[in-house]
Amino acid sequence: MLNKGDICLVDFEPTKKGxxxxxxxxxxxxxxxxxxxxxxxxxxxxxxxVIKDNQPxxxxxxxxxxxxxxxxxxxxxxxxxxxxxxxDKIATITKRELEGIRQALYDLL
Length: 109
Fold this sequence. Notes:
Elements: E1 6-11, E2 23-28, H1 32-37, E3 40-47, E4 58-61, E5 71-74, E6 79-82, E7 86-92, H2 95-108
Antiparallel strand pairs: 1-2, 1-7, 2-3, 3-5, 3-6, 4-5
């Protein structure tokens, strides 16, 4: 079961030119109820290439649990993809971080 705020490993391949790719951690943004209804989930991929002061395009996520590196949530790479691409849960973000990501999405859109 996928839960909003979980960080899971997600397979972003295949990609088109310029898209973020490979197997990487991503934050689940879909509501818990939505993940039971739809075959897809909305996610934001993480990158271990941290770029300071790059909001609203990125939001910093500190290492924790099985997330082994400091990371950036790549807000501009938000996407919906098949739940079949979502693998194991490795960590969870805090409510404060989730609110910060919501604000970054709001600012970006």
